From TrEMBL:
This is DnaK family protein. SUPFAM superfamilies: Actin-like ATPase domain (SSF53067). InterPro entries: ATPase_NBD, Heat_shock_70_CS, Hsp_70_fam. It comes from the Bacteria. Belongs to the heat shock protein 70 family. Keywords: ATP-binding, Chaperone, Nucleotide-binding, Phosphoprotein, Stress response. Pfam families: HSP70. Coiled coil: none annotated. Transmembrane segments: none annotated. It comes from Bifidobacterium goeldii. GO terms for molecular function: ATP binding; ATP-dependent protein folding chaperone. The keyword NADP does not apply.
Amino acid sequence: MGRAVGIDLGTTYSAVAIMDDAGGATILPNSEGENTTPSVVFFSETDGKDEPVVGTMAKHMAAQSPDDVVQFVKRHMGDPNWRFDSTSGQSYTAEEVSAIILKRLKQDAELALGEPVTDAVITVPAYFDDARRTATKQAGKMAGFNVMRVLNEPTAAAIS
């Protein structure tokens, strides 16, 4: 059985934490050694078969290839009309883009822990309605998580 993590899927940056032995939260570094990962995705303009790039590199690509970069996708969660159309002809929902970010966070957490990560609690703003909360949970499932709970950010802050 794998580890459970807490995820702050942020508008601009995201972070992953685990509960340490003392009962406190420990933030896991990403593969670049940083505690946060930019919530930015770069889609290659080739044939769409390349894996999207997430994080700092994607953020840097925004200046060179703005039409191939998605930022602030959290603002579109739960909106059935929002889509990102890449220059390679692929079209992505907000849930799909968020799932790509979450998949990267999952991979980085597994690298940091040296073991599989299966379960997650994902935080959302307190103002998120049911559609946005459901979309966030769906993105987590698409990324390979068993989403144990979608938790309001202020609640998560209070428990930590």
